[in-house]
Automatic annotation (TrEMBL), chains A, B:
<protein>
    <submittedName>
        <fullName>Glycolate oxidase</fullName>
    </submittedName>
</protein>
<comment type="similarity">
    <text>Belongs to the FAD-binding oxidoreductase/transferase type 4 family.</text>
</comment>
<keyword id="KW-0560">Oxidoreductase</keyword>
<dbReference type="InterPro" id="IPR004113">
    <property type="entry name" value="FAD-bd_oxidored_4_C"/>
</dbReference>
<dbReference type="InterPro" id="IPR036318">
    <property type="entry name" value="FAD-bd_PCMH-like_sf"/>
</dbReference>
<dbReference type="GO" id="GO:0071949">
    <property type="term" value="F:FAD binding"/>
</dbReference>
<dbReference type="InterPro" id="IPR016166">
    <property type="entry name" value="FAD-bd_PCMH"/>
</dbReference>
<dbReference type="InterPro" id="IPR016164">
    <property type="entry name" value="FAD-linked_Oxase-like_C"/>
</dbReference>
<dbReference type="Pfam" id="PF02913">
    <property type="entry name" value="FAD-oxidase_C"/>
</dbReference>
<dbReference type="InterPro" id="IPR051914">
    <property type="entry name" value="FAD-linked_OxidoTrans_Type4"/>
</dbReference>
<keyword id="KW-0274">FAD</keyword>
<feature type="domain" description="FAD-binding PCMH-type">
    <location>
        <begin position="36"/>
        <end position="215"/>
    </location>
</feature>
<keyword id="KW-0285">Flavoprotein</keyword>
<dbReference type="InterPro" id="IPR016169">
    <property type="entry name" value="FAD-bd_PCMH_sub2"/>
</dbReference>
<dbReference type="GO" id="GO:0016491">
    <property type="term" value="F:oxidoreductase activity"/>
</dbReference>
<dbReference type="InterPro" id="IPR016171">
    <property type="entry name" value="Vanillyl_alc_oxidase_C-sub2"/>
</dbReference>
<dbReference type="InterPro" id="IPR006094">
    <property type="entry name" value="Oxid_FAD_bind_N"/>
</dbReference>
Length: 461, 461
C-alpha cells in the first residue's frame, strides 16, 4: 500500500494527501443518511489539472478506485467513499478563471462555490441560474456531476442547460476538452452533456465553460393558500396550461406549513385549515411581471384559493421564500430526514402528494411534501427517529413506496438529486434492461477498469 | 445479395423495398452539392418500429451498412448513401402520436415534417421552437439527428433543448428508451442528448418526446441599416452586453442585401451604401416587446445605424423576414452555392464577415454572409459556376479558408449543419486527438460492427 501513497504524495505534495482517519472520515460521506460508505485509503486535494492527471495515472497503475467529490452536499451517496479508494476532493481548485461579459460566458474550476459564482457574475450584470438548495456551500463541480436543479428550473432549466463545455481528466490520465465557447455548435457527439450528471463515473471534471444570462429584474411574489390539496394542484395545472412561465413556483403541503410555522414562529395559515401553499415569482420586471402575477392570482382564485397575496416588496418576497427554504430545517426538530426526489408530469402532482399522505398514515411517520411545482419535481420528506431501528425501517418502506408511486404516475425516481448509491435498483426499474446495457457500454468505453466511482449509479458485471 | 433483399422484403413488405436505380438515386444524397455519395443496395421505407428492428437485424446479420435519413434537407452529406448500404428512409413513420397540452409535451414519429408539428401544436396554443430554414419540408428525425437550429435559437435554444426522450433502435435491433416525459430528471446518463446530433451513427430514432412552450405573442420587428460592417457588429455586441434577448436577430451583409434587392425587386438600401442590415424581433408581447425593441433601436442608433425602423404590423414584419429568408434563393441566380456554417463568439462576428470579404477577393468569387447574429452562427455562402472545375476548386478553397478563420476566432466549424461527410478532417482539427478517441469509443460501444452511417462524422480504424 505504501507505493500508491508515495505516488500520490509525489503527484500533489505531502500536505495534499490526507490519511489520518479522523480527518478522512469527513470526506467519506455526503448528506444522505441512508447511503452506505466505505473507508478511503486517502483523501487527495489536487491544486492543478496536472496534479489531477498524475493522481488518476497513479491510481490507474495501482488499480485503486477514485471517488471525485465537491463539498459533499449531495443527497444520493454518489460522493461516498468505497473501501480502499482515493477520494479526490476538488475543493482547492476553486478559481473563477474568466468572466467574459460581452459573450456572457464564465470559465470556472470545479471547486468554485455556487454562490461565489453567482455573486461574481452579478457584478457584471449577469446571472448563473442553477440554484440548488445548498447553493451557499455546494460546488459547481458537484452541480455538474449531479446535473443539479433548484428553484429556478421552471424558467431557466437545470445545470446542463447552462454548460457549454468541459475539461475532463479521463481514465488514462489524458485531458479531454468537450464542447466550446460559442452558444451553438454541433461538431461531434454531445460529450459535454454525457459527462454532466454522470456522478463522477466517467472522469474527473477539472474546468467548465458556463453560459450566463442577463441578470433578471428583482422578482415580484404571489402566495396563494388553498384549503384543499386538489385545488392547489388544479391551480398548478392551469398555470402551466395557460402558458404562464413564472420564474419560481413552489408548493408546500400542510405538514410542511405546520413545521415552518412552529420553526419560524410565524403564521402561514395551517391553523385556518390551509392544506397547501403555492408560492410563485416573476422576474420579468415592471408591467410584464405585474401582468404575469395578476394572471397567476386569477388562476389561483378561479381554482378556489382561500387567500391570494402579491407583493413587489423585495423584503417581503424574500421572507416568503425563506419560509419555503426553511422546510427541511424546520422538520429536523422532529427527527432525522429522508428526502425523496421524484418528478412527475405536472398534472399528476396532486396524486403524488395524496399518495404521500396515505404512505404517511400507513407507516405511521410524518411525511412533509415540498417541491418545485412548476416542473413536477417533489421532495416528500420522511421524518424518523434515528435511534429507532424500527422507524428507520418504516422510513425506508415509505421512501420506496413514494418512488414506486412516482414511476406509476409516469415520473422519474430522481428529478435532481441523482441515483448515487441509494437508488441503483430504481434506476434499473425505471430505464429497463436495454438502457442498463447502454449505460454499462458507455461506462466501459470511458472507464474500462471501472475505477471512477465504482458502484455509484449502477454496478459493473 | 439476394438473401438480404429477401430478408428486407420479409421485414417491411415488397412495396417498401425500393431497388430501381432511377428511384433509389433520389434517396442517395442530401442538399450539400460537394458531399460524396455511394450507391445504395436498396432504399427501405419502414412503417413501424418492429419493421425498423427487423431491418436492422437483417442488415446486422448480413453486415450491410444502414444510412438512416429523413427528407434529405441536410447540408453536410450526413444522409448520403455509402456503397452497398440500405438507406432507411423514415418518412413514412410520420404520425404525431400525442399532444399533451396540460404537460406541454408532444410525442412524434421521426418522419413528421417540422412545419406540420408546428401547426398541430399551435392549435393547442403551444410552440415547438426549432425552425431550421427547411422547416416546411425537413423532418423531426432529421432535426434530431443533426441537432438542428434555426432563427429562434437566440431565445429558445436548439433542437436538443426541446427533447425530453427518445426511442432508438440499436445495432442489435433492441429498442432503447431514453429520457422521460417529465421536464426534469437525472436518472442515469443523458443518453437522449448523446443521440441528438449523432447524425445516425449510433442508432435509428423511431420516436421522440418533445417539450413544447407556450405560443409566444406575434412579434414586433426592428430593422437597422449600417453603412459600415463594424458598426453593425458593434450593435450586436452591445445588444448582447446589455442583456437584451430578442426572439430573433439576423444579419445580412452587402452582398446578401444586393442579391435580395435584385431578386425581390425591392429596395433595402444597398444603393445608399448599406453595408449591413440587422433584423431583430421580440415576441414578448405588448409593452414588454415595445420596450425591448426601443432598447434595441437605441443601441443601433448609438452604434451608428443610418436608419432604424420598428413595426408591430405582422405583415410588414413577415415581409422583412421574408427578405432575410430569400438570401439563398436570391443567390442561386448567380450560380451554385456552397454554404458554410461557422459559429463564433458573438463579439467576433465582424471579424468573420470581414475575413469573408477578403476571402472573396482572394478567390475571385462572390461570398455573401447571412447569419444568426444573436448566437454568432454565420452562413457565408460562396457562389460558383457548377460547370467550371476551376471555380469549384476556388469555392472549396474559400469554404475551407472560412472554416479556418472560424476556428481561429474561437468558434466551431459547424453551428447547426453538422459534420457529415464534408467536415470530417475539420472535426478532428477542432476537437483534437483525445476527443476523437472518445468519439470512437462511444461509437464502438453502440455500434461495434460500424454499420450505422459509417464514415459520417468520422471514420473508424
Amino acid at each position: 500500500m505504501s507505493t500508491i501513497l508515495d505516488d500520490l504524495r509525489e503527484a500533489v505534495g505531502d500536505s495534499a494527501v490526507l490519511v489520518d482517519p479522523d480527518v478522512t472520515r469527513g470526506y467519506e460521506r455526503d448528506m444522505m443518511p441512508t447511503a452506505p460508505n466505505g473507508t478511503a485509503l486517502a483523501v487527495v486535494l489536487p491544486g492543478t489539472v496536472a496534479e489531477v492527471q498524475a493522481v488518476v495515472r497513479a491510481c490507474a497503475a495501482a488499480k485503486v478506485p477514485i471517488v471525485p467529490r465537491g463539498a459533499g452536499s449531495g443527497l444520493s451517496g454518489a460522493a461516498n467513499a468505497v473501501d480502499g479508494c482515493v477520494v479526490l476532493a476538488m475543493t482547492r481548485m476553486n478559481a473563477i478563471v474568466e468572466i467574459d461579459q460581452d459573450n456572457r460566458v464564465a470559465v470556472v474550476q470545479p471547486g468554485v462555490v455556487n454562490l461565489d459564482l453567482r455573486a461574481a457574475v452579478e457584478k457584471h450584470g449577469l446571472f448563473y441560474p442553477p440554484d440548488p438548495s445548498s447553493y451557499d456551500w455546494c460546488t459547481i463541480g458537484g452541480n455538474l456531476s449531479t446535473n443539479a436543479g433548484g428553484l429556478c428550473c421552471v424558467k431557466y432549466g437545470v445545470t446542463s442547460d447552462s454548460v457549454l463545455g468541459l475539461e475532463v481528466v479521463l481514465a488514462d490520465g489524458e485531458l479531454l476538452r468537450t464542447g466550446r465557447r460559442t452558444v451553438k455548435g454541433v461538431a461531434g457527439y454531445d460529450l459535454t452533456k454525457l459527462f454532466v450528471g454522470s456522478e463522477g463515473t466517467l472522469g474527473v471534471i477539472t474546468q467548465a465553460t458556463l453560459a450566463l444570462r442577463p441578470l433578471p429584474q428583482a422578482p415580484g411574489t404571489t402566495v396563494a393558500a388553498f384549503s384543499a390539496l386538489e385545488t392547489a394542484g388544479e391551480a398548478v395545472s392551469r398555470i402551466v396550461r395557460e402558458g404562464l412561465v413564472p420564474s419560481l413556483m413552489e408548493i408546500m403541503d400542510a405538514a410542511s406549513i405546520a413545521a415552518v410555522e412552529t420553526h419560524l414562529k410565524t403564521e402561514l395559515g395551517a391553523g385556518r385549515g390551509c392544506a397547501a401553499l403555492l408560492l410563485c415569482q416573476s422576474d420579468s420586471g415592471g408591467e410584464a411581471a405585474a401582468r404575469e402575477l395578476r394572471a397567476i392570482e386569477q388562476v389561483c382564485r378561479d381554482a378556489g384559493a382561500d387567500l391570494v397575496h402579491t407583493t413587489f416588496d423585495p423584503a417581503e418576497g424574500s421572507l416568503l421564500l425563506a419560509a419555503r427554504r426553511a422546510v427541511l430545517t424546520a422538520l429536523e426538530v422532529y427527527g432525522a430526514l429522508m428526502t425523496d426526489d421524484v418528478c412527475v408530469p405536472r398534472t399528476r402532482i396532486v396524486e403524488l402528494i395524496a399518495a404521500c399522505e396515505q404512505v404517511s398514515a400507513e407507516v405511521g411517520l410524518r411525511v412533509a411534501v415540498v417541491g418545485h411545482a412548476g416542473d413536477g419535481n417533489m421532495h416528500p420528506t420522511i421524518v424518523y427517529d434515528p435511534d429507532s431501528a424500527d422507524e428507520f425501517r418504516r422510513a425506508n418502506v415509505a421512501f420506496n413506496a413514494i418512488l414506486a408511486k412516482g414511476l406509476e404516475l409516469g415520473g422519474t425516481v430522481t428529478g435532481e438529486h441523482g441515483i448515487g448509491k441509494i437508488k441503483r435498483e430504481w434506476l434499473e426499474r425505471e430505464v429497463g434492461p436495454v438502457a442498463m446495457r447502454a449505460h454499462r457500454a458507455v461506462k466501459a468505453a470511458f472507464d474500462p477498469e471501472n475505477l471512477f466511482n465504482p458502484g455509484s449509479m449502477f454496478s459493473m458485471p
